[in-house]
Amino acid sequence: MSTDDGAAFLTVEGLAKTYAGATEAVFENVNFRVGRGEFVCIVGHSGCGKTTILNVLAGLEQASAGHVFMAGREVAGPSLERGVVFQGHALMPWLSVRGNIAFAVRSKWPDATPAEAETQVEKYVEMVGLGAAIDKKPQALSGGMKQRVGIARAFAIEPKLLLLDEPFGALDALTRGTIQDELLRICAETHQTVFMITHDVDEAILLADKILLMSNGPRAGVAEIVCNTMSRQRQRATLHHDAQYCRIRNHLVDFLVARSRELSHGRAPAQPPVVSPGLEPDPVDAPGSAPNVVPIKAAARVASP
Amino acid sequence: MAPALRSKLQSSLLSLAVLALLLLTWHIATLPAATARAASGLTPEQIEYQKMLGKDPAAATAKSAGFPTPAQMGETIVRNLAHPFYDNGPNDKGIGIQLGWSLLRVGAGFGLAALVAIPLGFLIGMSPIVYRALDPFIQVLKPISPLAWMPLALYTIKDSSISGIFVIFICSIWPMLINTAFGVSAVRREWLAVARTLEVRPLRKAFQVILPAAAPTILTGMRISMGIAWLVIVAAEMLVGGTGIGYFVWNEWNNLALTNVIFAILVIGVVGMALDLVFARAQRAVSYVD
């Protein structure tokens, strides 16, 4: 996949963040690019500053150094161009599903007629399959449904960039699977550019075109960019039968288990190399079974905070 | 459903039993026969002796009716409720008129306090600087008994009725102010972040995000304020006189009409409960489950 060409939609240059009173930066010298229509996941251990990077992209936090450019303009504050799906859905509990999404729609198009706004709201509620629950309050919804509303709210303002902060972290595995499928379908339909934080290696492989691997903090950085060379038509049910899947997964897990630590304290390269482990030949020194052994799920999941 | 209904029935029955017991105790305690029997136990010489000392046992029997019996009480309640709005001059007005005056003063004082406290509370809740600047004033002014302001109010305002309103104002402002500030400062950061990413303008953010988020806390403050205001109005009206339920109580005490005093006490309780219920309703209307 040719993603790192000159026509980058989002460019992050030399980003660093040092919190007041701290002696060392959380992360520094973070450089990466996201192309238009690309789905990028960022993976790393807790405390490496993933959420801070996302907040900087959203304009909710200020970086200590570095710049973020989106579509040729510097990101200086929050904007309706960037939709955010928060970790804890962040729905307003006094509003119904309709009210929550209408709040976002009204923010983007204050001059829209009530009918236009209503159409927009209903379109996105239908998109996440919650048409039947449109007039319910968030308290009456399950965790997965709430997160769907959060996704619908972010999509409803038709942002140029969608930022997802570990949106499925609090969901059970089955719900997570269905919503992942939905997100994949919606992103394919809308050609949405997405930047997403995840702790789940499998989720990253399923969803992302590019996976940014972050080394551990302090002084973390983007150590490597893994290209997902699998077909974009991949599906959750058949994903693990693809020969590339194991190689990519092993590469990611190896990084998180061993190399992420070695590359902390600013040892990550400033310009992360782009690798395509899916296309590499199987190592010859492990004959037979080794490449096909899928590590158990628990080992692959990075400890949550 | 059935067990819930049953326990409700049981508690209602228990309430009624307690009421009956209270009335019965009251009735027995005020039974004129009790003193009559005591008098009848005396020999004629003893009665004569007591009369010479100026203590007429027969008169004492009559006097023991000073504390009203439940029957007399019932009579008074019926009489007062039959004509609540009569007006026979400054010292004899119906309970409805007196209550109206009190509610008017409470409403005016409370309304003015809400007009000041809620916007100011918003400001304090949103800005830590303003909070720290105003905190010492609030801490000093809050514990002052509202009635302590009365002389100052009377001297400066020179109008007893408005002074009463001022006292209500000053006592109901603090819970509303403190609760509004707390509610506003405790709005979940996530909702504010949502508003920021949606580029919501400050005024819209205040009315559509912060206000609904803080509304349950603000209404709790209003409910507390109303409770205090209703406590204070009685005392304030006793002091300033003229009209109002507090003045009614004091006037009937001067008339030694204890049945009227007891009736007024009951009315104060019932109206206080009704006011509290109104705010409880409003509180439920704006509360949300997070």
Can you describe this structure?
The complex is a heterodimer of chains A (305) and B (290). Chain A has 305 residues and is of the alpha/beta class. In chain A, 32% of the residues lie in helices and 20% in strands. Chain A has 8 helices and 11 strands. Chain A has helices at 50-58, 97-108, 114-127, 143-156, 173-190, 201-207, 243-262, 297-300, and strands spanning 8-17, 27-35, 39-43, 65-70, 73-74, 82-85, 161-165, 193-198, 210-214, 222-227, 274-275. Chain A is globular. Residues 1-6 and 285-305 of chain A have low confidence and may be disordered. Chain B folds into 2 domains: 2-68, no CATH class; 95-286, MetI-like fold (Orthogonal Bundle), CATH 1.10.3720. Chain B has 13 helices and no strands. Chain B has helices at 2-29, 32-40, 44-52, 57-63, 70-82, 95-126, 128-141, 150-157, 160-185, 189-197, 202-240, 245-254, 258-286. The longest helix of chain B is centred in the last third of the chain and has 39 residues, at 202-240. The model of chain B has no long low-confidence stretch (mean pLDDT 89). The A-B interface holds A 58-60, 78-80, 82-84, 86, 88, 90, 92-95, 103-104, 107-108, 137, 139, 157 and B 188, 190-191, 193-194, 196-200, 208-209, 212-213, 215, 286, 288-290.
Topology of this protein?
The complex is a heterodimer of chains A (305) and B (290).
Chain A: E1 8-17, E2 27-35, E3 39-43, H1 50-58, E4 65-70, E5 73-74, E6 82-85, H2 97-108, H3 114-127, H4 143-156, E7 161-165, H5 173-190, E8 193-198, H6 201-207, E9 210-214, E10 222-227, H7 243-262, E11 274-275, H8 297-300
Chain B: H1 2-29, H2 32-40, H3 44-52, H4 57-63, H5 70-82, H6 95-126, H7 128-141, H8 150-157, H9 160-185, H10 189-197, H11 202-240, H12 245-254, H13 258-286
